[in-house]
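Changelog note: in this version the structure field was regenerated for every chain. One regenerated record is shown below for reference.
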Amino acid sequence: MSAPPYPVAASAPVEGAAAAAPYPTGPSSHLAAVGGPAQFLTPVQLSISCTNLVDKDVLSKSDPVCIVDLLQGRIDASQGKFVEVGRTEFIKDNLNPQFAKSVTVNYFFEEVQHVRFMLYDVDDESRDVRTSGGGELLGEVTAQLSQVNVQVCIHERACVNVRT
């Protein structure tokens, strides 16, 4: 059962996949109950590309993937927890990837949301890149979701380009 596109009382029970989701989902802008009074939100599709990534491979170029996390809990990153909300495909031998797979997140109006982009070099496709032996961290950057239509650099020359 999906969330209805209208305000829902905070005491209304949430069932099915919506109860398990770390944030509300839906096909269009709507009001949704999220642990209290109704809030206005809209899904935002993030398209990600990178330039001048670090080459971590010896005999070839890095095989990058981008993992997108949203801060759950407090506004202060030191008190909250980042939760993965999506990831791109990985692209073999490419230091300037233009990822085809975008990541969709819900943007809550008038609320500060921190999004983190973590770039990994995939070393072993059968393992998750966040685990030992799955990949190497190329870099990461954190920004406010309301300000991601920019280019943000993770090193002197390596940059992540995000557009909605």
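Spot check on this record: The mean pLDDT is 75. Strands lie at 30-33, 38-51, 64-72, 81-87, 103-108, 114-122, 135-144, 151-153, 159-163.
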